UniProtKB/TrEMBL annotation:
<dbReference type="GO" id="GO:0005044">
    <property type="term" value="F:scavenger receptor activity"/>
</dbReference>
<keyword id="KW-1133">Transmembrane helix</keyword>
<dbReference type="GO" id="GO:0007608">
    <property type="term" value="P:sensory perception of smell"/>
</dbReference>
<dbReference type="Pfam" id="PF01130">
    <property type="entry name" value="CD36"/>
</dbReference>
<keyword id="KW-0716">Sensory transduction</keyword>
<keyword id="KW-0675">Receptor</keyword>
<keyword id="KW-0325">Glycoprotein</keyword>
<keyword id="KW-1003">Cell membrane</keyword>
<comment type="similarity">
    <text>Belongs to the CD36 family.</text>
</comment>
<protein>
    <recommendedName>
        <fullName>Sensory neuron membrane protein 1</fullName>
    </recommendedName>
</protein>
<dbReference type="GO" id="GO:0005737">
    <property type="term" value="C:cytoplasm"/>
</dbReference>
<keyword id="KW-0472">Membrane</keyword>
<dbReference type="InterPro" id="IPR002159">
    <property type="entry name" value="CD36_fam"/>
</dbReference>
<comment type="function">
    <text>Plays an olfactory role that is not restricted to pheromone sensitivity.</text>
</comment>
<keyword id="KW-0812">Transmembrane</keyword>
<feature type="transmembrane region" description="Helical">
    <location>
        <begin position="369"/>
        <end position="387"/>
    </location>
</feature>
<dbReference type="GO" id="GO:0005886">
    <property type="term" value="C:plasma membrane"/>
</dbReference>
Length: 447
């Protein structure tokens, strides 16, 4: 699969980016386990979809629809179709609409207007699951650039000039929440969900944080997607036909309002879904590693480094009232196929994260702690030197001069009277006069 964004327009004032998305699927026989020529047996997706939809929503038109189906698909002998798998998925199944009968022409016109088939020539149409969408425009998107508010990076503003959907029975369910799944804002936390809106299923889904993980030796956060249990989630009842009684089983989504047919979405092999779904179908082996939806995510940069988006498409079968062929079908959700989109970054990209982000963060952390340690050691050393210097000072007791000591020798002996400044020795009393010494004061030394 190749996704291309083109015809981009920057709007600096509104901080938005407008682009057109194109999806292209390319068959790679060298990477495929099968050839595409295999024959499979499935419930007829087109007939089953038309009959169930009309019986559920427009029962009064059932006689006209039955007549048109008998003309277009004559002879109709079975509810199941044997078909080449590549025709079912991409190349298409031919439908002859050359009949001039009103019921047949009305049925062909209705299928064309609903987008269930694509014109092949003036009298024939083709039906396939992905062929009509291959290498075609997947809508005109407007998303935030995140220059003014980084938290808005990639968030969907509008799709095909509509700021909300008109699919579900509730404003909350019709909102565009999250990005287009190709980019996410940085600086997220473990409390944030990774929201993305998908036009293929006409709704937003949010992956939640599970635990810390490792990818290519780098620390990551592991997120998983849970389809939940709509019956027990009142805020999601707008995704139900008639809540709370008529909601899809746990772990599934009713995609009929979006796709126009009785299609149920879930994880492959009904992984993490209601166990009753497994009991009704043989051959399913749900496995977390092979069937879960996950993302190894780097929160700081907003980078998904490894992810797998997996979705199983199942058909909701049921008996068609008063129909000789489809009247005996059981009430069951039957898996048709599942698709997977995944990507994992190689060493070229993970090394950029390693050397430009993680080593930079480690260097900054090292510098920070070294600064703290050196600063703390310097403060302790300065305090020690200060108190050590204070401890070496000699305290001098003041002299009380109000009552002079009578026993003190006279000033002639060189004792200082502090208060009066008298009796200073001559060397201090007169600094400009050298001291004089009388001969009588000299004492001879004996040897």
């Amino acid at each position: 699969e190749w996704k291309e964004k083109y015809d981009t327009v920057d709007n600096v004032e509104e901080d938005t980016l407008t682009f057109t998305l194109r999806n292209t699927w390319i068959f790679r026989p060298d990477l495929s386990a099968l050839t595409g020529e295999e024959i499979v047996t499935v419930p007829h997706p087109l007939i089953m979809g038309v009959l169930l939809t009309v019986q559920r929503d427009r029962e009064a038109m059932m006689p006209l629809v039955k007549k048109g189906i008998n003309i277009l698909f004559h002879p109709l002998e079975s509810a199941f179709l044997k078909v080449r798998i590549m025709d079912l998925l991409f190349d298409g199944i031919y439908i002859d609409c050359s009949s001039q009968d009103f019921s047949a022409k009305a049925l062909c016109s209705g299928m064309d207007s609903e987008g269930a088939v694509s014109p092949y020539n003036e009298t024939h149409y083709k039906f396939s699951f992905f062929g009509m969408r291959n290498h075609t425009e997947a809508g005109r998107w407007v998303v935030y650039r995140g220059v003014k508010n980084l938290r808005d990076l990639g968030r969907v503003v509008s799709y095909n000039d509509e700021t909300e959907m008109d699919i579900w029975d509730g404003d909350e369910c019709n909102q565009y929440i999250g990005t287009d799944s190709t980019i996410f804002p940085p600086f997220l936390t473990q409390l944030d969900r990774l929201w993305a809106w998908s036009p293929e299923i006409c709704r937003s889904l949010g992956a939640h944080y599970v635990h810390k993980s490792k990818y290519a030796g780098l620390p990551m956060s592991y997120f998983e997607l849970d389809f939940g249990d709509l019956k027990n989630e009142p805020h999601n009842h707008c995704f139900c036909r008639d809540p709370p009684d008529d909601c899809p089983p746990k772990g599934t989504m009713d995609l009929s309002p979006c796709l126009g047919g009785p299609i149920i979405g879930s994880k492959p092999h009904f992984y993490d879904a209601d166990p009753k779904l497994l009991e009704a179908v043989d051959g399913l082996e749900p496995n977390k590693e092979a069937h879960d939806v996950y993302i190894h995510f780097e929160l700081f940069t907003g980078s998904p480094v490894s992810a797998a988006k997996r979705l199983q498409f199942s058909m909701e079968l049921g008996p068609i009232n008063d129909h000789e062929v489809f009247g005996q079908l059981p009430q069951v959700i039957l898996p048709m196929f599942w698709a997977e989109e995944g990507a994992s970054l190689n060493k070229t990209w993970t090394n950029q994260l390693k050397y430009q982000l993680f080593l930079g963060l480690k260097f900054n952390a090292t510098v920070k702690w070294l600064t703290i340690i050196i600063g703390t050691a310097g403060a302790i050393g300065s305090a020690y030197m200060h108190f050590r210097k204070e401890g070496k000072r000699t305290d001098v007791a003041p002299i009380d001069v109000s009552t002079p000591d009578t026993n003190t020798p006279s000033g002639k002996e060189g004792i200082v009277n502090v208060s009066l400044g008298k009796n200073l020795p001559p060397v201090i009393d007169g600094l400009d006069k050298p001291p004089k010494m009388l001969a009588s004061e000299l004492r001879p030394e004996r040897y």
